[in-house]
Structures are given as C-alpha cells and as structure tokens.
C-alpha cells in the first residue's frame, strides 16, 4: 500500500492551488454576493485543462486520472466551491457521460469544446417531483421516428443558464418503467427549450442554477445516448463518478475552513496568548484535522477504485456521505474558531459553511448515499 502522491500528482495539485489563490480568491466574495457566474475563469480553467481533466487528449482533454481530478477539485473548492461545481458537473457528469457512453460522432462533436471550456455542460435529471426518486421521470421524450419530442420541467440544474450542452433524462415508454428512460444531448437554443429564472441560493452562489422548461423540443435520434432504454442506467453510472467529484468538493470546503481556522488561531490573541494555545481551540483543531484526513482517505480510495477499473458505486457513495458530513461539521467549527470575525464575509469561513450544505444534497442526498451503501452491504 502506497499513500504517497506521484510527482505528477503533486505538480497538478500545486497548479490548481496556485490558480485558486491567484485567480479564484480575488473576487470570490463579490461573485458570491452578486451570484455572478465566473465566465472568464471558466475559460482560464479550460486553458489549464481543468474542464476536461479525465478526457482523452484525442478529444481535447488532459488525459489525467481520477486521483488528479480529486486533487484539482479539492484545491479549487478550498477557495471557491461555485467554480468547482462547474468543473465537477462538466467533468464527471457531462464529459464522462459522453466519452464513456456516447458514440464516436457524439464524442467528436462535443468533447473538444466541453473539455477546453469553450462549452459548458449541464446534467438534467432532477424534476419538481423526482429528485431522490429518480425513476419517477415526468419529462417525456416521445419517439417520432427520426426524432424525439421532449416535454417537461427540470429543476435545480447546475450550469442551467450558462450551459451549451444539456444531457436530458426523460421517459420514452412509461410501461417499461426505468427501462423506458432515455438520455439525450440537447443543445442551447433548441426551439421550445426555455431557461427559467435563476435560483437565489444559500450557498455556491457563484454557480448558475435554473429551472428548465422543454416544450415540444425536437431532438434528432442521433442525440440519444446509448441504446433505447439506457437512460436510467446512464444516469446512475454517471452519478457514481459525479459523487467522487462532489466528495472531493466537500473535502476541499472542509480543508479550506480548517486552514483558515488554523492560521487565524495562531495570530488571534485572547487571555494573553494566541488562541491555539487554549485547549478548547487546540482540541477543535485536532478533531478537524483528524476528520478531514479520514474524509481524504475515503475520497482517494473512491478515485483509486475508479482508476483501477474497480466498481466504485459504494466507495463513491461512502466518500460523499462522509466528506459532506465533515464539510458541514468542520466549517461550523471554523466559523466558531473565528468568533465574531467568522460571521463576517471577508473572513471567508461563513461562505464555506454555507457552501458545505449543498454537498449533502446534490448528486444524491446523504440519505440516498445510505440507500446505495446499505444495499451494497446487504448484497455483499
Ligand atoms: N449502476 C448501474 N445500474 C444501476 C445503478 C448503478 N450505479 N444503480 C441502480 N441501477 C439500476 C438497478 O440495477 C435497477 O436495474 P434492474 O431493475 O435492471 O436491476 C435500476 O437501475 C433501478 O434501480 P433501483 O431499483 O435501485 O431504483 P430505485 O428506484 O430504488 O432508486 C436510487 C435507486 C439509488 C435511489 C436512485 O434513484 C438514485 O440514485 N437517486 C438519486 C438521484 C440523484 O443522485 N440525483 C441527483 C441529481 S443530479 C445533480 O445533482 C447534478 C447537479 O446539477 C449537481
């Protein structure tokens, strides 16, 4: 067993750390306040290869492994979880989905732009009545011979307003249940495809979350991903990898809060000494560090499973369940260590605390992760 990173991994991690400090940090509070999508930064992340981290270089990607992906996600998330969710959805739901399950024509058409940040991708599964219960798709995609007609509403779609390429999950044949679901590539601007108002959110406010409306949207048959009825399996398989990205995001949010709290505790004085010298604070730091390391092990194990070609349904669910809990709990502690300053935006920890919450909700709530894990445990 080897816990060390390769030289290449360290280089990639440091590049992401440097980018986060120099490019994401300035303006992160303003973007959070104004809910501004970081268009320019997405292009820069594209130039650095962060928008297509695991995509094969023949399609314009960086050809890196899942370990590199989580290292980059952790570093970006320490500073700006809004930027990192844009990266995560684009990489592990959209690029991975098209590269792994799309056909050659779809790969060649979409990946070079998605992997370089010219295009941004969105993944449209959730609906007003189908968040956790993902087989209950009300959106329909009726087969009309050479094309499908999509009707319905999708909710809480990350990159929903800024997207260029949307992967849309819809029910074609209701009698077949989840085996009658398909996934489609829908392009921005398709007739009848409307982008609804932007959500005003608690956290990840610099990311772009919208309701989408599909009114008789015609989608050519060649835009279906996989064989007829593959859509639900596609969503589940893609989300397994997505959960590694969100787990890494949660890890980064927790680690970002911890690093700020440690630094603050070494300069802030109370009762005649730096507050880290008080056991009340020192023990908090010890717990934070331990919990974050434990989360890191689970996140790395899930990424390693993916790189090894092992099944990672359970390891990604465990990583997300645990890392998101750590993110929530430890960012609360980071605010507490900062005292009154923790409640003030310029100290960043209150934003990390708000951003942490979504990691327990999207790409499968913590309760859904427990369903996945418990079924795996019982099945053996
Ligand atoms: N890989 C392959 N197939 C899978 C699978 C997987 N990981 N998980 C389930 N399946 C298959 C099952 O084998 C089953 O197929 P068969 O009937 O042929 O055996 C089929 O899918 C249905 O599975 P279940 O019977 O387990 O279905 P269920 O109704 O009990 O629900 C669930 C399963 C795990 C709860 C699922 O509905 C789920 O994951 N829900 C959460 C959805 C989710 O994560 N939503 C997030 C939205 S996306 C998002 O947040 C993106 C964003 O913008 C950030």
UniProtKB/TrEMBL annotation:
Residues 231-377 form the Acyl-CoA dehydrogenase/oxidase C-terminal domain. Belongs to the acyl-CoA dehydrogenase family. Its EC number is 1.3.8.10. Residues 6-118 form the Acyl-CoA dehydrogenase/oxidase N-terminal domain. InterPro entries: Acyl-CoA_DH_CS (IPR006089), Acyl-CoA_Oxase/DH_mid-dom (IPR006091), Acyl-CoA_Oxase/DH_mid-dom_sf (IPR046373), AcylCo_DH-like_C (IPR036250), AcylCo_DH/oxidase_C (IPR009075), AcylCoA_DH/ox_N (IPR013786), AcylCoA_DH/ox_N_sf (IPR037069), AcylCoA_DH/oxidase_NM_dom_sf (IPR009100). One of its GO terms (molecular function) is acyl-CoA dehydrogenase activity. Its cofactor is FAD. SUPFAM superfamilies: Acyl-CoA dehydrogenase C-terminal domain-like, Acyl-CoA dehydrogenase NM domain-like. Residues 122-217 form the Acyl-CoA oxidase/dehydrogenase middle domain. This is Cyclohex-1-ene-1-carbonyl-CoA dehydrogenase. It holds the Pfam family Acyl-CoA_dh_M.
């Amino acid at each position: 067993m080897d816990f060390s990173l390769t030289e290449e991994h360290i280089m990639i991690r440091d590049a992401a750390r440097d980018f986060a400090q120099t490019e994401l940090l300035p303006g992160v509070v303003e973007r959070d306040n104004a809910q501004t999508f970081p268009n320019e930064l997405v292009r820069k992340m594209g130039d650095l290869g962060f928008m297509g981290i695991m995509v094969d270089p023949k399609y314009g990607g960086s050809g890196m492994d899942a370990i590199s992906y989580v290292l980059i996600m952790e570093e970006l998330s320490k500073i700006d979880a809004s930027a990192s969710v844009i990266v995560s959805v684009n990489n592990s739901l959209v690029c991975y989905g098209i590269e792994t399950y799309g056909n050659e024509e779809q790969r060649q058409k979409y990946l070079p732009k998605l992997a370089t940040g010219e295009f941004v991708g969105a993944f449209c599964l959730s609906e007003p009545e189908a968040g956790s219960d993902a087989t209950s798709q009300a959106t329909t995609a009726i087969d009309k011979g050479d094309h499908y007609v999509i009707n319905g509403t999708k909710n809480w779609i990350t990159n929903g307003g800024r997207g260029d390429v949307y992967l849309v999950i819809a029910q074609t044949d209701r009698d077949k249940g989840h085996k009658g679901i398909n996934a489609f590539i829908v392009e921005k601007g398709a007739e009848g495809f409307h982008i609804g108002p932007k959500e005003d959110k608690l956290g990840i406010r610099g990311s772009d979350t919208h309701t989408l409306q599909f009114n008789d949207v015609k989608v050519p048959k060649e835009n279906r991903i996989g064989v007829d009825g593959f859509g639900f399996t596609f969503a589940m398989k893609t989300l397994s990898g997505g959960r590694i990205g969100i787990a890494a995001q949660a890890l980064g949010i927790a680690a970002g809060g911890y690093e700020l709290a440690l630094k603050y505790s070494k300069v802030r004085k109370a009762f005649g000494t730096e507050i880290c010298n008080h056991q009340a604070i020192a023990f908090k730091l010890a717990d934070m560090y331990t919990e974050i390391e434990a989360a890191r092990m689970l996140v790395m194990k899930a990424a390693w499973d993916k790189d090894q070609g092992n099944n990672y349904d359970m390891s990604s669910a465990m990583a997300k369940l645990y890392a998101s809990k750590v993110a929530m709990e430890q960012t609360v502690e980071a605010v507490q260590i900062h005292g009154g300053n923790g409640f003030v935006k310029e100290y960043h920890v209150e934003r990390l605390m708000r951003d942490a919450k979504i990691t327990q909700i999207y790409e499968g709530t913590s309760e859904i992760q427990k369903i996945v894990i418990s079924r795996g445990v019982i099945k053996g």
